[in-house]
Design goal:
The structure holds 2 protein chains of 2 kinds.
Chain A (H helix, E strand, L loop, with lengths): L1 E7 L2 E10 L4 H11 L6 E5 L3 E4 L1 H16 L3 E5 L3 H9 L7 E3 L2 H7 L1
Parallel strand pairs in A: 2-3, 2-4, 3-5, 5-6
Antiparallel strand pairs in A: 1-2
Helix pairs in contact in A: 1-2
Chain B lengths: L10 E7 L5 H15 L3 H21 L8 E9 L2 E8 L26 H9 L2 E7 L2 E9 L4
Antiparallel strand pairs in B: 1-2, 2-3, 3-5, 4-5
The chains are: A alpha/beta, B alpha+beta.
């Protein structure tokens, strides 16, 4: 698991790569909360390089989304594919989070 | 070899202690097994999800004491399906009798408990539970994707 950030049109884009599972969820959450500590208005979580997610990883994404909504920021999620997309759909996250197929759509939606 | 169909009869047993740090070893063994047995990536990822969810639940909640316990995972390719059996000697717990999570509730009021079991139920083709010889035995099966 590796987390990195970029700035795209004034949006804080956070890339999560690799696996978000029981083993990586705790360090991932700490790192993600640090990235949004300064309360950025617009946050995009890009999952295009995420290979695997379990419910522990979903909890991390949900926790970050709650945090951003808690300070009235806007959070979108883009790029889920394969098993990650399937897990998001089965868990009903498509109705809880703003999910976009690709990053351009997500960026345009802010 | 029958490409994409898996090697019928391939088997592996993995034993781990009730420590979350053991998951890395289990996942590496699963990957080796799937590579060697010709299990396709989608099925291997479903198995990884099932092991992550069930083993983390067992390790975190199944034992009332602080002793070391052994959990056994059996993997096998049987009739073009990957079969996973997870056995633990923790307190009796049938994961498939738990209530389905509230998937429709809003993000603010959503309960996460039960989500892992919900995922496994939906991603695997078959699942069952038995209490045998004072052990919880969960059996899961997923048909291989013919490549």
């Amino acid at each position: 698991m590796n987390i990195s950030t970029r700035s795209v049109d004034g949006i804080l884009a956070i890339d999560i790569e690799g696996k978000l599972d029981t083993q990586t969820s705790t360090p991932a959450l700490e790192e993600l909360l640090e990235h949004i500590d300064a309360r950025p208005d617009k946050v995009l979580i890009s999952l295009s390089s995420l290979e695997f997610v379990s419910s522990a990883g979903l909890r991390v994404i949900l926790r970050v989304a709650k945090q951003v909504r808690g300070y009235s920021g806007d959070l979108k999620v883009s790029g889920a594919q394969g098993v990650v997309k399937e897990v998001l759909e089965i868990s009903g996250f498509d109705s809880l989070l703003d999910l976009y197929e690709d990053e351009a759509q997500a960026v345009a939606s802010f | 070899m029958d490409e994409g169909g898996g090697i019928i009869g391939a088997e592996m047993q993995i034993q781990l202690s009730n420590n979350l740090n053991e998951l890395a070893v289990v996942m590496a063994a699963l990957e080796d097994f799937c590579d060697g047995a010709g299990v396709d990536m989608g099925t291997a990822q479903a198995a990884e999800l099932a092991l992550d969810e069930f083993l983390s639940n067992i390790i975190s909640y199944s034992y009332l004491d602080s002793e070391e316990h052994t959990i056994t995972v059996d993997l096998a390719v049987v009739e073009r399906a990957l079969q996973i059996k997870i056995s633990d000697n923790g307190m009796p717990f049938n994961p498939f009798e738990q209530a389905e999570p509230e998937l429709e509730s809003s993000i603010e009021e959503r309960e996460i408990g039960g989500l892992g079991i919900h995922l496994v139920r939906n991603i695997m083709d078959e699942y069952s539970y038995a209490r045998l010889d004072e052990c919880n035995v969960v059996t899961l099966s997923k048909r291989l994707n013919e490549g």
